[in-house]
Amino acid sequence: MQIDRRLISHFDWPLFLLTLAFVGMGIVTIYSANYDIAAEHAGGLPSRQLLWLGLGLAVMFTTIAFDYHYVDRLAYPFYGLILLLLILVFFVGHSGGGSQRWINLGFFRLQPSEPAKLAIVLVMAKYFQDSEPSRGYCLRDLWAPFALVAPLILLTLVQPDLGTAIILGLVFMSMMLIGGLRIKSFLGLAAAGLAFLPIGWNLLWPYQRQRVLTFFDPDRDPLGAGYHVIQSQIAIGSGRMFGKGYLHGSQNRLDFLPAQHTDFIFAVFSEEWGFVGCFVLLACYFAMMVYCLKLFERAKDRFGALLIFGMVAILFWHVVINVSMVAGLMPVVGVPLPLFSYGGSALASMMFAVGMMINVSMRRYTF
Prior knowledge:
The chain is mainly alpha-helical and 367 residues long. Helices cover 66% and strands 3% of the residues. It has one domain.
């Protein structure tokens, strides 16, 4: 776990500083989301997020310290650990909000489905690290990845955590495509997925079906399933061009916004900073992804490139689904805004992802 001093000169400061900027903006917004005007304080959540940042930085620098080629040996043990934790959730898990997703470690409540995204990237990068066949992979070549990933998705789905299960599936598909899955095979898989929708609908929990139906008609249950989306859209719209100003969002101050420091934190930010603020925030996410894809192109080997692409896929799908959900462009599925929303497991997992990308970036100069 020793870092060559020559590597320090190649430390990826732009990616590191951009990550800290997102977390910093997130903590400021968490403070606003929980600010009590009468008491003139925001409770303990902002301070706790700072502690999670400290944990995330420790995870990040530990990830950077190891040569990423060692991940090749750790991929399957890490996968096995996450699978075990997902099973343990059903026996010793902590419940909240109708779901049983967390394991209480005393000082920290771990949500195993968050690092499960990383496990998928690691095992898929290991599987695809060798050169792909000249004509690409067909579905029968990929039975092993399907067998590895399916338990993670199913165990997450029955917690129930539909949003994270969707993210796991999308990250898996992204890794298969970049790994060399034939387009014809991908289209066949997509068609099979569409054919499975009627069965999948019957497997959803009643509240999840209600959310899907509410997406098509939010006014069908404005005080129930449609409440989240309606209030979120009002908050986004009330921000207009330049927003109402920090700590002055009326929807947030009057407690109309649900989950304002987690899944709906983008609505809080939108109301306070308006269209211009949202544009800047999303432009920063876009810049971060483009920058990371440049690192993907420059990686010195296929394994490093796959690791970077997988981590970018996690970031991309989180941003797309969270913003679409908050804006009412897709059903509410409970996905946080990466590096921004409150939560220790999510933040530590994303800091691991960033650390892995910095790791690959630094070591592209070594031979």
